[in-house]
Amino acid sequence: xxxxxxxxxxxxxxxxxxxxxxxxxxxxxxxxxxxxxxxxxxxxxxxxxxxxxxxxxxxxxxxxxxxxxxxxxxxxxxxxxxxxxxxxxxxxxxxxxxxxxxxxxxxxxxxxxxxxxxxxxxxxxxxxxxxxxxxxxxxxxxxxxxxxxxxxxxxxxxxxxxxxxxxxxxxxxxxxxxxxxxxxxxxxxxxxxxxxxxxxxxx
Length: 203
Hints:
203 residues
């Protein structure tokens, strides 16, 4: 059997056996570790796993770099049973809103935070997060971080269809090689993402 075909088949079998998609673009790209030693809030998110007022304020702060915001969300992580960090964040960030706001009503940075929280909260339904992340990418078209998070979510959406697995690395590689993006993510974080996503491009 072709090596790539064997690898994809093995990963598919493992995902189906676990029932949790524990090996997937969203759940297997833990790039927060590239930030946790230098950013106390990334470490705090890693330890709590749940949205707090302090974390929400940090994520809402315009002075917090966009890649660090993404790292904080990544550090909050995921659970098979799901989480509610996106909803909690929106309750704290937009107290007058009845629910998660529409993408058109938030900034690009807030859209990145909310969308990434949404897919981390429920990685079984990545399509629900895509409107926010698409808005973030439109608002921040030069951000490598935004492009990569959006791409990981899109790869997660395609992950359900094994026939599309050969597209996952191509989508990721396109972002990595895009010279129009500003490189606002630590190289160590990019390497963590690439190390995992590149298995879908192996032959």
